[in-house]
Amino acid sequence: MSCPGTPATSMSLSRSPSPVPGGGWSSPGLNINSGRSSPANAPTSGPVHWESAKMRHLGPNGYPSFATHNQGFFTRHMRRISSSLPRFNSSNTDSRHGGRDKPNRGQWPGQNIPLIGRIRSIFGRMGRKLKIRLLIVLIFLLCLYIFYHSPLVHLYRRANWGGGGSKFVIILAANVGGGVMEWKGAREWAIERDSVRNKRKYATRWGYDLEIVDMKTRKKYAHEWRESWEKVDYVRSAMRKYPNAEWFWWLDLNTYVMEPSYSLQDHLFNNLQSNVYRDINEYNPLNITHPLTYPYLDQSALSAVGDGNVNSVNMLLSQDCAGFNLGSFFMRRSAWTERLLDVWWDPVAYEQKHMAWEHKEQDALETLYENHAWVREHTGFLPQRKINSFPPAACGDGSGKNNTRFHYNQYERDFVVNMAGCEWGRDCWGEMYHYREFSYWLNRNPWERFKEDLIAVIWFKLTGKWVKL
């Protein structure tokens, strides 16, 4: 606003003359409210080009750009890369090629560093996170090795809170003391040695107890003074010896566990309902009438499957082409089992029928099953190849072909093979040796497969000779 009497002129933005025509400074930082309205030492000869100077320092996006000294991968890591390269020994020679024939020419100091020093240098260049990860992996591998190569895995598989192996006892029939009725030769000793070793390794692997019973001829088992059947007596003795066990598995001497990687729990007992059949009409080579129809029987005795509860099954066995087979069977500790063993052992039954029962206790059990309803209620049957596969010569039709119900099948990896009846015109040792080697071949580890399926084959093609590695 102008005072009266004063000519109206435009107010200057500064008290000093502006170098820009029309008044004002070209400085972008001019602020009317600031204490200073112009630079302290502003030149008066021409305008100050601050705007252009500012634009030179701005990037294309309008933000200030700045350059670092470590741009690029090689710039940042050049020192580390160069320090890791080999350093050649340059000799102090006057001529450029004067040391060409010297023996030490071309060597670098890293060649003389010992192995421990190299390892230490490698670990020294590792980061802290990588060292921690390697330590965790090493501790994990060490724990795995200790667990599987120490008694820890055996204790775990045997404990009730672990695998539960202490609930199972394997009863193996043997003749440790030598032959009595006939001379025991080298083949008989070899059969017994292989069979016992096979059962012992299997029992140790899964934490089971192994009871080797001596089936030698004793006075109470001799014909003139015989009390009853050996198998029944030994099963009762094993139940007294192992009071905490639940299942007892009888195996004849001429049997071989083909798949030691199968535990009894995984193979059979964890899914018993789908493996057991209680109605003998599913496979009935003896043509036994089932179920019984007596009017005084209760509902479970009149039923073909008993009470239908798999936990009430106290005896498991298989049937071959001739009927019951006791080369491999299971019995559970129970009051019913004690009662059955007492009746089965009864000397009266032996004295009456021992001349007619060709298969001894096997025929006696068939008679008990056929005539007593309480025996049927708690007896279950397994498919024969589940626990008791036969070689092709047993239950064969003379053609040598496998019967899918009885005979061992390598493609389905049957659990146990029983050389039943091999002492009657067959070679027991030959069959035992065959299945022993075949079991080893089926259960080789990756290293053994590499040696035998690759290295040995290459060696045979080169030399024409088989070598066992």
What is the residue-mean pLDDT, rounded to a whole number?
80
**Considering DSSP H and I runs of 4 or more, what fraction of the residues is helical?**
25-40%
Low-confidence stretches: 1-14, 34-40
Rounded to the nearest angstrom, the radius of gyration is 46 Å
Write down the CATH topology of the domain at 157-393 and 402-444.
Spore Coat Polysaccharide Biosynthesis Protein SpsA, Chain A
What's the overall geometry?
Answer: elongated
Q: Termini distance?
A: 114 Å
Describe this structure in words.
This protein has 469 residues and is of the alpha/beta class. The protein has a domain at 157-393 and 402-444: Spore Coat Polysaccharide Biosynthesis Protein SpsA, Chain A (Alpha-Beta Complex). The protein has helices spanning 50-56, 73-84, 115-125, 128-148, 151-158, 186-206, 230-241, 264-267, 272-275, 299-302, 335-345, 347-353, 361-371, 373-377, 384-387, 428-442, 446-463; strands at 168-174, 209-214, 247-251, 255-257, 315-320, 323-332, 379-382, 416-418. A six-stranded mixed sheet has the order 2-1-3-6-5-7, sandwiched between helices. It starts with 49 loop residues before the first helix and ends in a 6-residue tail after the last helix. Residues 94-104 have a biased composition (Basic and acidic residues).
